[in-house]
Amino acid sequence: MMQQHWLTRPGTIRRLWQVFIAVLAATVAAEFFIEHEAHFGIDGSFAFNAWYGFAACAALIIFAKLLGEVLKRPDAYYEEARDE
Hints:
Elements: H1 10-29, H2 48-71, H3 77-83
């Protein structure tokens, strides 16, 4: 019997989520100890980098989904070209 790849095991996936959440929490908590200068008004808000990164990622996903809908071809696209 073939073994599962270590990245597909449920225990590994759970552990990776825990590590990622811990790293995110640590970077947000670092905002309390690190002083930074705001260049624009909004980038001085608490956890700006975290929520800005999340919003940018979500926007890219939505854009990719919309672009996929615009560029999508019918299922029989190549079959129609062969019939001609």
